[in-house]
Amino acid sequence: MQNKLQVDKAVRTVLLISASLSIVIVVSIFIFIFRSSLPAFKEFGVQGLLGELTWRPANGSFGILAMIVGSVMVTLMALVIGVPLAIATAIFLAEIAPRGVQAVVRPAVQLLAGIPSVVYGLFGMVVLVPLIRRIPVAGNSGYGLLSAAIVLAVMILPTITSISEDAIRAVPRAYTEASLALGATHLQTIFQVLLPAGKSGIVAALILGIGRALGETMAMIMVIGNSVILPAPLNDNPLTVFLSQARTLTGNIAVEINYASGLHASALFATGVVLFMLIMIVNVSAHAFLNRSNALAN
Amino acid sequence: MRKSIVVVFLLAGLLLSACGAAGETGTLSITGSTTVQPLAEKLAESFMSSNPDVQIDVQGGGSSVGVKAAGEGTSDIGMASREVKAEELAQFKNMQVHVIARDGIAIVVNPENSVNDLSLDQIRDIFSGKIVNWSEVGGADAAITVVAREEGSGTRDAFMEMVMGKDALILDNAILQSSNGAVRTVVSTTPNAIAFLSFGYLDESTKALSIGGAAPTEENASSGVYPVVRPLNLLTDGAPEGLVKAFLDFVLSADGQAMVREEGYIPVK
Fold first, then answer.
1. Residue among A56, A139, A142 whose CB faces B190 most closely
2. What is the reported pTM?
3. ipTM
4. Hey, which of A57, A146, B27, B203 has its CA 20 to 30 A from A204?
């Protein structure tokens, strides 16, 4: 008896340690990145790093504003392209598709999540970029925000689709029955009852998609052009801003860390701190929404 | 019986120690350019396999790090894929520069491009954004897409030094890629692209241009007719001695220079 209790206690301790390990890892990564970025923050200040556009390590300018704008723009564009597609797929899978079709579509969407990002990048580089280059605008190289956003939209599709589908399925059966009993059609029920009821879950799905998009590196390096410029229209038509090249925060680190030393390396770690903060904010808000939607479902 | 075993062991021991005395012993640290690094690693591997008691550590960091490491004595040997600058030589007065290989930098375009030759001035104006259309240099009427390496790359540093000069900068909206291989892929898939590539990466997927009439060939690069050639240097603080000297001698030997050629660079001997 006594022995069993001791085993119980030991196992509990082991489980606790395993669970705490990830917290320890996250905290130590943050401490490491933050400490390595301190020299750059001391030298240039928060304003000098986050508020400056010029990034020329050889001349001692380390402004990462252009990269912040690049990351935010490509993420927003990916959401605009990917979210309608993802939510439509989620509705289709949860409400409309017969079982047989579901059995084909769901694994196909989930398979997208398993493709390595370098493969997405390669596909973008040899298929998408040449297509985008056909848009007849002077200075359009094909590499840029639009190509990157399309690749990214496909990459965030599985995350948003599966969590949104779960959110729609979690809406109590009684809601659907009540809506149909009141004479609403199936489509009316979907758009006016199911989607509003599953709202917090869907929003959480979007936020997780944003996190995935902000963190994507390899595929972005391969198609976005990596020029350190504030995205700007190529001619008088403001829409051509989407053909502009850009660089993401993740790309900045990955492209330059190989040769960086001293302040340059420290400024790259500062880029990492900014990225870390952005993704923390995104994840914390995703969890807040998920908790709310779980509370509602119960 | 037992005696004879002891004798055999003694003999074997003598033999082994004799072998050891013939080879070099000790450790050697090499730091610097990531262009020279793969070559230095190959050379070090080969040197270590013929001298089993030697341990050589090769680290990257870039040419500037290599100069500093050798000058300050934190490494036995520094690597640089560019000329050592005058101010660096002034700072580290005892530094000795050993050229172990040369590497040409080719200006490449897409194979569909009709342009075959550019002058150094034209190349500078294209990369700095003064010339923006291929028709200005005798090509088709199409906007030029400039592709370059990222800041800190040794190939970029060498290109900046030999082609761009002191004041010209590569234009801001150049497409940047972080390796020679990625640059080559972009140029081979982008009709109006231009870029610079190490000779080691040339193949039929891109077209290397002549510069002022000089074709980008190994002969032209080693004779000095082709203008954009950089040295790959090993640097030592003072005259090399002992193990450092043995390694440098090996690098400049016929075997070492054969490995230089294998890696796609131009031997110096």
1. A142
2. 0.81
3. 0.81
4. A146
